[in-house]
Automatic annotation (TrEMBL):
Transmembrane regions listed in the UniProt entry: none
Taxonomy of the source species: Bacteria, Bacillati, Bacillota, Bacilli, Bacillales
UniProt keyword list: Cytoplasm, GTP-binding, Nucleotide-binding
Any GO BP: translation
Ranges where the CP-type G domain occurs: 14-179
GO molecular function: GTP binding; GTPase activity
Single GO cellular component term: cytoplasm
Protein's organism: Paenibacillus albiflavus
Protein's name in the database: Ribosome biogenesis GTPase A
Length: 291
């Protein structure tokens, strides 16, 4: 489900997270490994105001592992943040969250021990934009189904702590943040991964952007999966009609036709996006850090 982010929604989302922050020790900031900066809330540093934070790059099963490694270096070197790649759907990497969270909380825990206070379980909150995998991660860590997927901001319910092992507790409702949708390039990336409403951007435009990007960075994905022969150069692809030619070639190969034998560009766009999102084009990252 996609949330429409009106200013009122943003204020409420922010207030809700700040209420929750009072209860917790460490934030788990969930980002999409394919667009870590694009899937980041533009005001996150301000909203979290200094809470210890673990950056988790989810859906790493769909991202380019080489680029993910660069992102980990980027977060560490430029932001001083520990970033962990995971795949919440299968649980790959999730076990590593507890030790990392413990490390982030160690100063606080040592201070408590020095004061003679018996340390309690570390309390953590998962935050992220819609569709990034918050509910999937909560359910995986809980070992059962807890959060309703597509939770809306502003719908508060009684909050509960979920025990994750003996040393950590997770708030059962995530903090939902709005994406950086005012940046058009990011809008296309978010639409490509299926995280913003397709009605906001035209499907064929999203597919256009994706094809140009793939031609530049992952030409094999177009050649191998869709059988595109003699991929035009990047310069040639700046011309929209050349991109349409590529799409028509794909549509024809796949039988996405309208009556009269013409290629159905909408159908072709959706099949390209569907196959990209499900990983059928291979592991692809849509942005790389500027190191
Ligand atoms: P939320 O809105 O942040 O709570 O996101 P959800 O947990 O509802 O997940 C959104 C979609 O992403 C669902 O279809 C999940 O199955 C899928 N998903 C979540 N984590 C992963 C992952 O690590 N890999 C893949 N491939 N899909 C995932």
């Amino acid at each position: 489900m996609t949330i429409q982010w009106f200013p009122g929604h943003m204020t409420r989302a922010r207030r809700e997270i700040q209420e929750k922050l009072k209860l917790i020790d460490v934030v788990i900031e969930l980002l999409d490994a394919r667009i870590p900066v694009g899937s980041r809330n533009p005001m996150i540093d301000e909203i979290l105001s200094g809470k210890p934070r673990l950056v988790v790059l989810n859906k790493n099963d769909l991202a380019d592992p080489k680029v993910t490694a660069e992102w980990i270096e980027f977060f560490s070197e430029t932001k001083g943040l520990d970033a962990l790649p995971i795949d919440a759907a299968t649980g790959q990497g999730v076990k590593e969250i507890i030790p990392r969270v413990k490390l982030l909380n160690s100063a606080k825990m040592e201070a408590q021990i020095r004061k003679g206070i018996k340390p309690r379980a570390i309390r953590a909150l998962i935050v992220g934009i819609p569709n990034v995998g918050k509910s999937t991660l909560i359910n995986h860590m809980a070992g059962r189904k807890i959060a309703a997927t597509g939770d809306k901001p502003g719908v508060t319910k009684g909050q509960q702590w979920i025990k994750v092992g003996t040393e950590m507790e997770l708030l059962d409702t995530p903090g939902i943040l709005w994406p950086k949708f005012e940046d058009q390039a990011v809008g296309y990336q978010l639409a490509a991964i299926g995280s913003i409403n397709e009605q906001i951007l035209y499907l064929d435009e999203v597919a256009f952007h994706l094809i140009r990007y793939l031609a530049a960075y992952y030409p094999n994905a177009l050649e191998d999966r869709f059988g595109v022969e003699e991929l035009p150069t990047l310069e040639e692809l700046e011309d929209n009609t050349v991109v349409v030619d590529v799409m028509e070639a794909i549509g024809r190969k796949r039988g996405a036709l309208v009556s009269g034998g013409r290629v159905d560009l909408d159908k072709t766009s959706s099949l390209i996006l569907r196959e990209f999102r499900s990983g059928k084009l291979g592991r692809i990252s849509l942005e790389a850090p500027k190191l």
